[in-house]
Amino acid sequence: MKLQNKEKQSYLQAFMFIASSDGIITVEEITALKNIADSMGFNKEKINYLAEEVKKGKKLKDILAKIKNRQSKLLLIYELILLCHADGKYSDSEKSSMKELTALLNVETEKLVQIENLVDEHIDLKEKLNLVLESNEF
After folding, report:
1. DSSP annotation of 90
2. Of 16, 77, 98, 118, which cross-links 54 as Cys (Cβ 3.0–4.6 Å)?
């Protein structure tokens, strides 16, 4: 899916918002944020500018306003839940933030639960794969 520049900025700021929602930004989350920003082609100055807006209290409603396409919304929810799991736990504050985000995107709570279950299955499969392949790479 090809995102417009404004959507990319909203995506990245949504990632920043969720990563900071539990009050702790882990090394794993920082790495994930850097990878996302790099994949979207943002330079360091733009990343810092967008991060500063979030840090100064840009409202989640305003961050998400540019994301209109339902498929983009669902993909964002999926990727954000993956980010929440980056540090090995999906905290209550992250879950609460995801519920708020889902509501602001006008996506049903049932869809959030489906996506959360899908991510859980994905993580379980990766762990099983690592056991079978005797590896930590996946």
Report:
1. -
2. 16
Between helices 70-84 and 27-39, what is the axis angle to 10°? Answer: 150
Count CB neighbours of 29 within 10 A: 20
Q: What is the pLDDT of residue 1?
A: 59
Tens digit of each residue's pLDDT (9 = 90 or more) over 14-56: 999 988 888 888 888 888 888 889 989 998 899 889 999 998 9
Q: How far apart are CA 121 and CA 123, in angstroms?
A: 5
pTM: 0.86
Q: How far is it, in rounded angstroms, from Cα 115 to Cα 128?
A: 20
DSSP for the chain, written as a single string: -PPPHHHHHHHHHHHHHHHTTTS---HHHHHHHHHHHHHTT--HHHHHHHHHHHHTT--HHHHHTT---HHHHHHHHHHHHHHHTTTS---HHHHHHHHHHHHHTT--HHHHHHHHHHHHHHHHHHHHHHHHHT-S--
List alpha helices for 56-91, DSSP H: 60-64, 70-84
Answer whether 19's CB lies under 8 Å from 79's CB.
no
